[in-house]
Design a protein that fits this description.
By secondary structure, this protein is mainly α. It has one domain. It is 78% helix and 0% strand. The chain has 13 helices and no strands. Helix 2 runs antiparallel to helix 9, helix 3 crosses helix 9 and helix 5 runs antiparallel to helix 6. The longest helix has 32 residues. The mean pLDDT is 85.
């Protein structure tokens, strides 16, 4: 087996591990809420653990911590978008089922393809638009739209937060593509994480002051609560590191497609650990959404230069 094949296999395995890490993070976040943690606190603490890991791992692997000055603004912007994405998503986790929040989040590849078309001033293909409509149809099935009591059992604030996460994620990938494409991935990850941590801290203070969201961590004597915070932060870091390493070993397009496994891993975990519903309607809707997303990613990968 040649070196290229080994790199491809390693990239696939690392990316699958990243998807599993994010799935673990998703379920553990919900458990941490049960121990008194709030979204802004979880977001900030996750970034603290991630940055600490980067400061240790990057020098150990011979990667530079320095980022050229011309990339600073782009790294800050990408970090702000990533922080917005994460805050919206983990807030949604506290309002709607985790599996449903992830289904909405994974509209982001379609949003990314549409944003790319707008930036490059090329027509949005009918096929991409069809993928978006089909994904919305799948989401409507998963939500039970049109059924009895639909408006009363759906938390629309949670749905909007999840869509905000999808738009933030699309913005992050677009900004990284056009503003940070030639930057060193290790240093880029560090600086975007630092920017994200600052935004998370600012959001925590601002939301607390205006009374929108408290900044709570588990109690000082709550060992289980702090163990959950540590575990979810490690899972998040594994996901973040794994996805970044996967991009270096295989193409970003392949990594994005493999990351769809995050939803596949999360839904059964949420069913077993959190007791979230996993009925035929939700599975049918999830299948339609994920199929639309994969087709959209395939179309983007095979788009003429």
């Amino acid at each position: 087996m040649d070196k290229g094949s080994n790199a491809r296999i390693a990239g696939i395995l690392v990316t699958v591990m990243a998807a599993a890490g994010y799935a673990g993070n998703n379920v553990l976040v919900a458990l941490a809420y049960g121990q008194g943690a709030t979204p802004t606190a979880v977001l900030f603490l996750r970034y603290v653990v991630l940055i600490a890991g980067l400061l240790i791992i990057l020098p150990m692997t011979g990667q530079s911590l320095a980022l050229p000055r011309r990339f600073f603004g782009h790294a800050i912007a990408a970090g702000c978008l990533a922080s917005f994405d994460s805050l919206c998503l983990i807030t949604a986790f506290g309002l709607i089922p985790i599996g449903l929040a992830l289904l909405i989040l994974y509209f982001y590849p379609i949003f990314t393809a549409i944003l790319q078309s707008l930036i490059e001033r090329t027509p949005i293909s009918p096929a991409q638009f069809g993928c978006l409509l089909t994904a919305f149809a799948g989401l409507a099935i998963a939500l039970g739209a049109g059924g009895e009591g639909f408006a009363s059992h759906v938390n629309f604030a949670g749905v909007l937060c999840a869509f905000g996460a999808g738009l933030g994620s699309a913005g992050f990938f677009i900004w990284s593509r056009y503003g940070l494409a030639s930057a060193e991935p290790g240093a880029t990850t560090l600086f975007t994480s630092l920017a994200g941590a600052v935004i998370a801290a600012f959001a925590g203070v601002a939301f607390y002051v205006i009374g929108l969201m408290p900044f709570h961590t588990p109690g000082p004597s709550d060992g289980f609560g702090w163990l959950l915070i540590l575990a979810l932060s490690i899972c998040f870091s594994i996901g973040y590191f794994g996805m970044s390493l996967g991009v270096q070993l295989i193409s970003a397009t392949r990594v994005t497609m493999l990351m769809n496994l995050e939803t596949v891993f999360t839904m059964p975990l949420a069913f077993v650990i959190l007791g979230e519903a996993l009925d035929a309607r939700r599975l049918a809707g999830a299948t339609l959404v994920l199929t639309s997303v994969v087709v959209s990613q395939w179309l983007a990968a095979n788009r003429p230069a």
